[in-house]
Design a protein that fits this description.
Maltoporin, Chain A, 49% strand
């Protein structure tokens, strides 16, 4: 009875909407994945899937200008008129060009806009680049972005910060608009992200935006996951390789493993689909095992991510992104000198600690990122996002090789919520504003205050606003 009532209430709204769909191909007939499809003058848009198809459902009836753009292709536009209940197929054929086309980005102003209209410097990493370079972790993808330097596990954009071994990062990491920094050290969790389901990675270079606050003084890295495809998609990806035996005899003398090949490899399985017109999901599972090219440099990782999206009626969208990770890694901190570079050093960092150049730990992580979006009109929408990110780090016993209790390691949670509005007051003038609250609660035996306190709690709140106006000469 309740389902029939809901269906009856939704039917009048659905009758006033229509759907746009189609396929994008190149001039030689090849399908083009990752092409940005935007309704000009509105915040609505999407990107083509791996088969070159796109879908824009639940659009209010009316006249639209559909814009297709991609790097390396000439921008194309189509004018359409959508009647209530219509499903129109609008295909595009894009011509290759050496000029930069109108690429759509969302990080600079917290809304969809053409890259050429962005007031800050920004680079985009596409899924095709990730595939061609066999990228399995975020830091590997960022090495090819101009102005980004990777030192071990530390990211620096245009030299805005020094090397701090990924603690207190001045670069903000976003996953679908939600901040994702570790609660214990404010570091970037490279391995946590589901790269197999990434639509694109946007890198904002420098503190050019007032919308992210002091936590983004070094820039912003925004990982945007894929939309749900029109047809079910399943993929399995395998990779592997070996580290060759060490060439130098003086290094081989200190470690027997240096005389033999050291394997690494992994697998990723994904599935994405629309269950019906209102509900969609994708799932990603990853396993990696790396023997390492250094003594005490092994890594074993298992990761799972899922995204569920529900659109109960036109203009309303609820999305939940959830993930879990378990990683056991031998962290090689520093070497034992120029003649024994493959073995860890032997220096005690503090009184009462064992002298070792490794930090072996079992790291378990969870993340939960729900979001709610309400598109009130083509000129106004608002969003509410929440986030929870938990970390449990258990050190590995040097004698037994088993994880110690979490009371001897770190247990931390970062949580928060934010609300945001985007309003096109009139053509060429946009207002973005909102408020956010975040906090972390951490108990750690690694980070102890002078009075012996292992507990840490850091709440913070912020408001932000930005007005953009297009100036015409």
């Amino acid at each position: 009875m309740l389902a029939l009532l809901l269906l009856g209430l939704a039917a009048p709204g659905m009758a006033q909407t229509g759907t746009l769909r189609g396929t994008v191909r190149s001039a030689d007939g090849e399908v083009l994945p990752g092409v940005n499809i935007v309704l000009a003058g509105t915040p609505r848009g999407t990107a083509t899937d791996l088969t070159g198809r796109y879908l824009l459902p639940n659009l209010p009836a009316g006249a639209y200008t559909l814009v297709a753009s991609a790097v390396g292709f000439r921008r194309a536009e189509r004018s359409v008129r959508l009647a209530p209940g219509d499903t129109l197929t609008v295909d595009f054929t894009l011509e290759a060009t050496v000029l930069q086309s109108g690429e759509v980005v969302v990080t600079a102003a917290r809304r969809a806009q053409l890259a050429q209209s962005s007031p800050v410097s920004l680079s985009v990493v596409t899924p095709r680049e990730l595939e061609y370079r066999n990228v399995v972790a975020l830091d590997e993808a960022l090495r090819y972005v101009p102005g980004v330097q990777i030192q071990e596990n530390q990211v620096t954009i245009r030299g805005t910060s020094g090397f701090a071994y990924n603690t207190g990062s001045r670069v903000l990491l976003l996953l679908d608009g939600a901040p994702l920094l570790s609660p214990d050290a404010d570091g970037l969790p490279f391995d946590t992200l589901p790269l197999a389901q990434v639509e694109r990675i946007e890198v904002l270079k420098g503190p050019g935006s007032a919308l992210y606050g002091s936590g983004a003084l070094g820039g912003v890295i925004h990982v945007i996951t894929r939309a749900f495809p029109e047809r079910p998609e399943t993929s399995i990806r395998l990779f592997g390789g070996v580290y060759e035996p060490v060439r130098y005899a003086v290094w081989r003398a200190g470690w027997e493993g240096a005389r033999h090949p050291r394997p690494f490899g992994g697998a990723t399985a994904t599935h994405a689909r629309r269950l019906n017109e209102r509900l969609g999901l994708w799932v990603s599972l990853t396993y990696r095992n790396d023997a390492g090219y250094l003594h005490f440099g092994k890594t074993r990782l298992v990761q799972g991510f899922t995204r569920i999206g529900w659109q109960p009626r036109p203009g309303l969208r609820l999305t939940v992104l959830a993930g879990a990770l378990s990683r056991q890694r031998d962290n090689f901190l520093f070497w034992n000198g120029g003649r024994d570079a493959l073995n860890p050093g032997n220096i005690a960092f503090a009184a009462g600690t064992s002298p070792a150049g490794t930090n072996d730990a079992l790291n378990n992580q969870i993340s939960l990122l729900p979001s709610f979006t309400h598109v009130v009109s083509n000129r106004f929408f608002y969003q509410v996002r929440a986030r929870l990110y938990g970390v449990a780090i258990r050190p590995i016993d040097d004698v037994t090789g088993q994880p110690r209790p979490v009371t001897e390691g770190t247990l931390g949670f970062r949580y928060g919520i934010e609300g945001q509005i985007n309003w096109q007051v009139y053509p060429g003038h946009h207002l973005t504003a909102g408020a956010a609250y975040d906090a972390n609660a951490t108990r750690s035996s690694f980070y102890v205050t002078g009075d012996g306190d292992q507990l840490g709690h850091q709440p913070e709140g912020a408001v932000f606003a930005q007005w953009e106006a297009d100036l015409h000469p």
